């Protein structure tokens, strides 16, 4: 089978011809139809999970998010059967049996579930990490209907889902964007207000609109100084979470706020909850770029350089 893999940590992603993995007890073999790309994928190549506790194998096949059809089930599998359409996070130990491949082996108890019937495999592959991150960020913020939420970095995958889910909860969403096209897209996704951070400092624009302060902040793009400045926009008792791991959690607590650095906890339960919303037709799945396995190395380099635009999905 064809797969995008590396031969060592920090290696160059390459399209390789590798054996189709053999099914093991309590695992399913998936014929992958599409894989969603996330920065975490190349961070794993760089060794972010190499803490001495998580086993890795080489060649290390990249990829976490995927969608496809169950090709074979191992001994003891009860949840899935051959022919089932599934999606989710394929990550498991050993690291290196990822979704950037024509076939992938995944434990039945991994963060995978049945794919929504009303979307394509490409759309399904774009959902797991970004969708669950957005969903769980909002759960942790615990805002109420009518509260004002600022999403910094709103135009990416997580931000696109968070904007929609927040609007569905009745929150007043302020989204950031750098141009008119993205501003229009965020409005369509449910943002009440879109602010162009290139025109004027973001804090200045928000203070002019909400001098009394806002209730919540999701940071998906900021550096530590930017986050610190944006936190000053929050009312006492407000909440802030960042996926960038640049928060001073002690300082946040001292300010009378809730929140801090945020890491997604993938689960089939979270995915099932997302599936219900998707099947209701209330979520637009953001897929901006569809590429082949052969185009992945270039796309990885763009992501590393922070030059990637929009959600990229690999069609397999």
UniProtKB/TrEMBL annotation:
Domain of life of the organism in this record?
Answer: Bacteria
A Pfam short name: ADH_N
Do you know which SUPFAM superfamilies this protein is assigned to? GroES-like, NAD(P)-binding Rossmann-fold domains
Q: Does the keyword NADP apply?
A: yes
Q: Where is the Enoyl reductase (ER) domain?
A: 11-314
What UniProt keywords apply to this chain's record, in alphabetical order? Answer: NADP
PANTHER family per the UniProt record, alphabetical:
QUINONE OXIDOREDUCTASE
Q: What is this protein called?
A: NADPH:quinone reductase
